[in-house]
Amino acid sequence: MSRIELTGNPFVKSALKNRWPQLAVFIVMLAGYLFAILAGLVGTQVGSHNFSIVFVWIAWWAILILVAVPFFGRGWCAVCPIPLPGEWLQRGAVLHPPRKKPKWFNLRWPRAFRNIWLQNISFLLLALFSSVLLTTPNITGIVLAGMLFAAIGLSTVFERRAFCRYLCPVGGFIGLYSQTAPVELRIKDKQVCATCEGKPCYNGSANGYGCPWDVFPGGLTKNTYCGLCMECIRTCPHDNIAVNLRPFSADLARPSTRMDEAFKAFIMLGSAMIYAGVLLGPWGALKDAAYNVGTSAWFIYAAVFLGVIFVIMPSLFALCISRFENLNAFKKRFATLSTSLIPLGLMFWVAFSLSFVLTNATYIFASLSDPLGFGWNLFGTANVTWQPMLTSILAPGQTLALVGGLIWSARTAQKAANEAKTSLIPVIVYCFITTLVMLWLLL
Amino acid sequence: MNRSELLSRILITAGIFLAVGTPLLFRMRTPIIHAHMAENGGWSPEIIQAEVGKPLQLRLTSDDAMHGFAVGQMDMDAVDVEPGKVTDVTLTFDKPGIYTFFCTRWCGLNHWRMRGTIEVSGSSADSEPVPEPALSEVAVPLYVTLNLDIDAPHESPIIPSGQPSTIRGQQLAADLEISRFNNPDFYRANSPYQLFEELDSTDLSDSEKWDVVSYIWESNTTTEALANGKQLYAQNCAACHGENGAGDGVFADDLQAAGEASMQTMNGSMDMSMQTPVDFTDSKRMLGASPALLQGKILRGGMGTGMPMWGSIFTKEQIWGLIAYLYSFQFEYQGEIQ
To answer: Which chain A residue has its CA at the smallest distance from B13's CA?
Structure first.
């Protein structure tokens, strides 16, 4: 398959290798993140007028799911401010590697948790409380601060970016969906890596830090766990690292057989459908149940939420693809075939997000001028009245996304079915039915 | 530490200070009065200090629903306090004292509990010290002077069969000696039923006597007072007592439910009805109530019934106008109340 090496351009390469442009972005992102925390804690508690709600859950989410993930994969992780303070503390420097490393515990992450199950759980924890989290500035401020402190704490105990790699609630699905993105970081020549002494890309050198994501670039075959931090470009003594443009979903040609990743696909597919029903649907009782955390209605909602994601959707999928074979073989085939759900899940989220982003986008203008609800009017847009945007393209756009997702998944299923040496029809039937349900929920 | 590392750290620190300092600094420098539904805390802060003659600049915002802001016994237009937006209000007080500010939007069942005070210190604008009035000169509400028990039943034993009419009453009164009834002292101290009894000495039928009562009651007020009363009623009373006075305002059912929930265990089910807003179209109750008694109820409030006290908010004139309007639910007055 054809690829275009972006780092072949000297300007792009030096911009990525140089630490200053990255630091400038980091400072802006970290300042924005801290401002969002403070806005949540001391600004108006009216969500639609508070920077923390409007910029995190509307603007950031829109950029993440509609642009960053589909087109840049882990592009967000490359500029995310959450791990920075912890990482700087861990490294003892904010720019180039220091001569003397600080003495932290620097432990290896426990083997039992070297998977994305914790990320699956952290995502679901936020998802179950999302109706409150997405509308209450105080809670958003506390959660954002909590993630920052968790990342700092983990950086002082464990080596590298343990928070990003194993705990971040959004990192898990960004990684999963980054496989569909048309951007990748890969080595140019395997042989060079094989003979490279010291492996500075993994272990670090005077030029840069060892991979913060605990990945050996020489073995990279998919985007899932590469955070695009660009350290290996700086450390590679052989100029063997490239950032490439490539066809969409190139990584899905080689399906994963891991159960944590397979379930991530179900979690994302199912939660997009549940969100569409709860947040966009006409059922008031459902909204109340999701909002009133701690009540018996909420516990029922939480049980249904988890039941749909962990039992109903995977069971139906298993039923569709079942045949007589031993359990291990079946698990492998289950994980392989669930790769087909990745493009569909991404497009479900695109379709769902289109709806609430276009509905709420005008809040961004008002919040830009008065981010804390203190009565400011910095850019003259504080009094922009709320109105849904581009309503005429919403339904066609969503339909296009869902149908496109179905076709994309069918093509992925074709490859996965070849790999698993099985029929692709049951997978397509499953995707078709879930798409119909999602269409019904959205339209 | 090399220079580039130092510069980076300075830049990062500056960014952090900017991001954290800006909200904190403005939070401290811009005191804002936050309005919440009474259940969530009402006004915060609820006590504000001010000085006579010195403009008091207030910045108001709501953290939940739409609220309103006005200061009792002060000539000002109420302003809306919208969620997430800031409303600026400037007030200047002529006299020292404790003023009550309150919510003017029906924000919820406990809307009337949303009150706070402005403590205005200093001396009056005319710079003369305000002398403490002698106890005998303190304006005591009429119901106190008359020694009325405003919580005692006050039903009229006889009620008219139809709605008494001022126009008919005016014609009938032409032949009667009624001048002694046409003065505020009589009107305020007596109920319509007491006047009805006073008319026993005439040859009028019961229904004619009620017509005369209607006429005399209207004569004791002005069209302006009635119009003011109507406006105050619509803004402050109709939420519970209903637009047409029938005790069926938008909060009536909720009040009753709240009463059932809260009072059953305290006083037994007999007291539950106290939470139901009074029906001003109920002739027995209204025709047995004197303006002084109604003034007492409005001034003091309903003591645990959900009826707020309005003494710190309405002026005397406003309350008399409001009372005059309440009787219009019983009588067919001559002109339309604007």
So the answer is: A27
Q: Where are chain B's structural domains? A: 33-121, 139-338
Those residues whose C-beta lies under 8 Å from the C-beta of residue A95, and which sit 6 or more positions away, are A19, A23, B4, B5, B8
Q: What is the pTM of this model?
A: 0.80
**Which among B37, B61, B66 is the top mutation candidate for probing chain A, defined by the most A β-carbons within 10 Å of its own β-carbon?**
B61
Average pLDDT of chain A?
94
B139-338 CATH fold: Cytochrome Bc1 Complex; Chain D, domain 2 (1.10.760)
Distance from CA of A46 to the nearest CA of B (A): 5
State the nearest Cα–Cα gap between B107 and chain A, in angstroms.
16
CATH architecture of B33-121: Sandwich (2.60)
Strand-strand pairing, B86-91 and B97-102: unpaired
Helical packing angle, B316-327 and B223-232, nearest 10°: 90
Cis amide leading into A255 (omega within 30): no
Domains B33-121 and B139-338 share a fold: no
What pLDDT shows up at residue A73? 97
Share of chain A above pLDDT 90, in %: 88
Residue B255 near residue B239 (C-beta atoms within 8 A): no
Residue of A30, A33, A45 to mutate, interface with B, max B Cβ within 10 Å: A45
Whether residue A29 lies within 8 A of chain B, CB to CB, comes out as no
- ipTM computed for the complex: 0.91
pLDDT tens digits for range B26-81: 888 767 899 999 888 899 999 999 999 999 989 999 988 999 999 988 888 889 99
